[in-house]
Structures are given as structure tokens and as C-alpha cells.
Design brief:
Length: about 400
């Protein structure tokens, strides 16, 4: 799924920023309140134990949602797709991927990874319950019999395995933007050979699901059930995402099959790696007033980005061996993030995270030589030009 807006950072895991937005705290509070109320009637222990069990269950449930999104992220990164962040919010979680999968197989594997993790979490919860409580107790609990003693561990694991199975089945619904919708897109893409047609079909299924869920939610609200509000929120989210997918597909159709090399600036200003930082500061940064430059090595091969602050500081404090070279202050770790093949279709840049973050990408040929620069403004201008 595409990401949402700003969020509070919790931690970084494997280079992926994990955060939550304000709505997550609201849902966490409501989940703890609801679970603690329910647990008080199920547990024979004190109210404190019921409350602590509710807190632990709610936190573990959100941890399982994070595991679901990490499933998507790990498979995406193995496919060479960057994942900048994962955000948890009131309706679940979303992994923000830098680009779309390049083949139906990649799409299928990334989409299926999340539900697979949720199913695995449910299985692990059942296995832990069997080991801790015994198979007989777990069997009675599964059959909802009354002749068992409900313990905090059994109660928490029961909620976790139930909710993860719900997430598993719900996400497999064949409607955009659910994982099942992306799996549907992968299958239709494979059969038809057209990603745009596959996206439209999946998005229309998503719109249909949104109407069904919205109708169900409205009926529940009219009958006095507050759970209908949750269904209405889900319907709104799915409907918005589905309509967004349709709009993006229409935009991609306007762009056509044009490649990066058709739009890029073919005469980029680049910094040679073997220039000393004093000269780079005077003849590049001070002259052009830019905050960064692409750095090229021998034969024009792109190796990374040199930034004004680091270059200026190195020029002001030369070492014992004299002024360092640009290569010494080049950030090589971002070379992949800042580059794109010159034969890449413009369609793939419409929802490209690095282009949006950096404002520009270095267009490279098959040998890694810097051939041009493509900017966000150029892509936007191309869309306006085609739609006018």
C-alpha cells in the first residue's frame, strides 16, 4: 500500500522507519478499554490482572500488524524495491515502497507476504497455547465449551490468533488496495500482459467492496450499532484508495510509453571525483548556489552525491596531506537511491519515492555513466503537456 502522511517515529528496524500517527493512539486506548472490560468478565483474577492482560494483548496485536507489514517490506527489499517507512494507524498499517513491482511475480510475492505472516502468527499463537495450556484446554477453548479455566495467557493468545486469522482472510479479499486486490492485479497482469488494465479491474473491485461495506456500516448505524462507524471508515478508505488507483492509471495512459531519456536534461552539471574540495566549493557550489551535485568518476560513471555543507567544511579544514578530494566527501551510500536507468518508463516514476524526496534523479546508461538528470518538475510538465 502507499503510505500516509506524517507520523511519530517509534524506531528504525533494518533501515526502515517505523512510526504511528495520532489515530493509532486513539485506537490503542479504545482497544485496551474494550478488552479490559471484556476480560474482567472472563477472568477469575483481579481487575488489575485483567487490565494488564488487555494492555499486553493490544500491544501484541499491533506488533502482529507490524509483522504483517514487515512481511511486505522484506520481500520488497529482496526484489530491489526500497521501503522508506512503515506507519501504523487506526485501520492497520502501511508500508511505503519507493516504487511499484516490475513484474506480476514480484507483485504477487510482495502482496502475499503480509497475509502469510498473519497466518503464521496465528499458527504460532495456537502452538504456544498448546505448549503452555495443553492440547485439551486449547481444544475446549476452540469449541467454546464452558468447562475450562480461562487464564490470562490463554485469553491473550486466543484473541491474537483470532484477530490474525481475521486479518488474513480480510486482506485476501480481491479488491484494491487490500493484499488480495494486489494479488488479483498480479494474476490479471500475468494473463493480459497489461498492468494498467489489471489495476483498473482490481480498483473497480475495490470500489464495489467499498459500497458494500458502506451499506453494511450504514445499516448497522441506523440500527444503533456503533461498530457500523468502523465499517464506514473502512469503506471510505478503500473507496478513496480505489479511486486513486483509477486516477493514477488514467495518468499513466496519458504519459504513454515514453522513457526517462525523452524528458531528461542531457547536459547535467556534475562534479569530477578527482577535484579537490577547495576548487569544488569555489567553482561549483559558490558559482551555482546549489546544495548538492552528482559526482562522477572515470568515464563519467556516477558514484554518489556531494553536498555543500560537507564540502565546505572539508575545504575550511584541510588535513596534513593538503586539501581532500571530492571523492573523500561523496556520499556513495545514496547512489542507488538517486539513480534511475535512462530507459525506465515515465509511468514508473509517477509514484516514485526517491524522486519525490530528492526532487531529481540521475539518469544512467547500462554502464552506470551519468547521461542526464530528470526532475519532478519535468515529470509534472510532461503530464500537463499530454493532458492538455
Amino acid at each position: 500500500m502507499t503510505g500516509r502522511g506524517g507520523s511519530f517515529k517509534l524506531f528504525t528496524l533494518g533501515g526502515i522507519r517505523v512510526g504511528v500517527d495520532f489515530s493509532w493512539f486513539v485506537v490503542l486506548f479504545l482497544a485496551i478499554f474494550w478488552l479490559s472490560s471484556a476480560f474482567k468478565t472472563m477472568l477469575s483474577s483481579s481487575d488489575t490482572v485483567a487490565y494488564l492482560t488487555a494492555v499486553a494483548t493490544a500491544l501484541l496485536f499491533f506488533a502482529s500488524l507490524l509483522a504483517h507489514e514487515l512481511g511486505h517490506a522484506v520481500v520488497a527489499k529482496r526484489a530491489g524495491i526500497g521501503v522508506a517507512r512503515i506507519d501504523l494507524w487506526m485501520l492497520g498499517g502501511m508500508a511505503r515502497m519507493d516504487s511499484e513491482p516490475k513484474s506480476p511475480g514480484e507483485e504477487f510475492r510482495i502482496a502475499a507476504a503480509g497475509p502469510a505472516v498473519s497466518f503464521l502468527v496465528a499458527v504460532v499463537c495456537v502452538m504456544l497455547a498448546v505448549v503452555i495450556e495443553g492440547p485439551s484446554t486449547v481444544s475446549k477453548a476452540a469449541n467454546l465449551t464452558d468447562d475450562i479455566t480461562v487464564t490470562p495467557v490463554l485469553l491473550a493468545l486466543g484473541v491474537l490468533w483470532t484477530m490474525n486469522l481475521v486479518i488474513f482472510f480480510f486482506n485476501l479479499l480481491p479488491a484494491w488496495p487490500l493484499d488480495g486486490g494486489r494479488i488479483t492485479r498480479a494474476v490479471v497482469w500475468k494473463v493480459t500482459g497489461s498492468r494498467m488494465r489489471a489495476t483498473l479491474i482490481s480498483a473497480r473491485l475495490g470500489t464495489g467492496l467499498a459500497w458494500v461495506m458502506g451499506g453494511w456500516g450504514a445499516w448497522q448505524v441506523l440500527n444503533g450499532s456503533l461498530s457500523g462507524i468502523w465499517w464506514l471508515l473502512l469503506a471510505f478508505f478503500i473507496g478513496q484508495a480505489a479511486r486513486g488507483a483509477v486516477v493514477q492509471t488514467q495518468v499513466a495512459e496519458r504519459v504513454g510509453d515514453r522513457k526517462v531519456l525523452a524528458l531528461m536534461d542531457r547536459y547535467p552539471v556534475a562534479l569530477p571525483a578527482d577535484v579537490d574540495v577547495e576548487r569544488a566549493n569555489e567553482e561549483w557550489f559558490l558559482r551555482y548556489g546549489w546544495s548538492w551535485f552528482p559526482v562522477v568518476a572515470a568515464a563519467g560513471r556516477f558514484i554518489g552525491i556531494a553536498r555543500e555543507e560537507q564540502t565546505r567544511e572539508a575545504a575550511e579544514r584541510p588535513g596534513l596531506g593538503g586539501s581532500p578530494m571530492v571523492s573523500d566527501v561523496t556520499d556513495r551510500s545514496v547512489a542507488a537511491e538517486w539513480s534511475v536507468a535512462e530507459t525506465t518508463p515515465i509511468e514508473e516514476l509517477l509514484d516514485h519515492g526517491p524522486l519525490a524526496r530528492n526532487g531529481a534523479l540521475m539518469a544512467l546508461d547500462e554502464d552506470g555513466v551519468l547521461c542526464g538528470v530528470i526532475t519532478v518538475e519535468q515529470v509534472r510538465a510532461a503530464l500537463i503537456g499530454r493532458s492538455g
